[in-house]
Write a structure and sequence with these properties.
about 325 residues; mainly alpha; 13 helices; 3 strands
Length: about 325
Amino acid sequence: MENVSSHKHFILDGFSELGALRPVLFIPFFIMFIVSLLANSLLLYVVISQRSLHSPMCILMAGMAFVDLSLPLFFVPNMLLSFLFDWRGISLIGCLVQIYFVHLIGAFQSTLLLWMALDRYFAICTPLYYHERMALLRFLKFVIPLLIRNVFMVTLVVMKAAPLSFCSENVIQHCFCEHMALVELACGSTAINNLVGLLAVFLIPVADFIIITASYIVIFSSVLSSGKTGVKALHTCVTHIIVMTVSLAIILVAFLSYRLKNGLPAAIRVFFSIMYLFFPSCFNPIIYGIRTTEIRQHILKTLTCWFPILKRPL
């Protein structure tokens, strides 16, 4: 009986409180989307086209740019169309597919930060063995287990959500399909889904954060005992720490907003849920482009080649 009455079509109703002002949201989110596409595409192009940037760290930054470029494509276009034309419908299958890819690609944002932390650990704490340990076959032993973990946990989350029955409301208070926003609408007990969701959070971003923090504690200890040479090598670490702090702060706020509601307006929860996925895609390539000297120089050179008007006499 539950299967017969279960909804197979949902309405994405994020920011419905704004009423007639809802279409105005198209402007800021469209600007962010364009910035994300252009900044990440430029960073990818520069790293791929310049052989001098084919170092392990720059390749990892290019990997982050690819993730940041891909992630918004799975939910931002639909969200923008919803703001502009009020297209809010999505099927259950479409919703589950969106959840899978959004959460899977999102998981790699923290995982790439972990790989970057390992790169800095090897470069600063074991510089004599850096190239040996960052060789592809050696580094795969750090890559493959985390790939398997991410795919397994996100697949488990979606598999546990797929059989749920949605027999009362079919309105999702969100602008895209997010796991907890969908699970909240299910009939009956969702304890297993909540548990699996919590496990995914603790085994992916939280576990990555713990390992990253431990790595940087060791790195800072090594730098403090090595003098000026170590301080110079720490520059790239600061960039990663800025990116990690901003990303994890937004993730934490979004996570807590769903589990500690306490009368928090739905629009606030929706906003932070969008930002924890979307904001890093805009922020990361800009901060890497500005703070990484080699990349910044090649970006400026590329831009001046494309747009000669940017050249200024000294």
